[in-house]
Amino acid sequence: MHFGRQAGQGLAEYALILALIAIAAVLALIFLSGAITSILSLIGQSL
What is the reported pTM? Predict the structure, then answer.
């Protein structure tokens, strides 16, 4: 069995997909942070 370049290419694609998912998660947190903060402050005020 000889993997060579194909195994490295698969690993690079996997790493790229993980990086894109991480970037999307960070962007979602940045855009939703205002809404999350307002919801948490509303909950805190009602307690």
Answer: 0.59
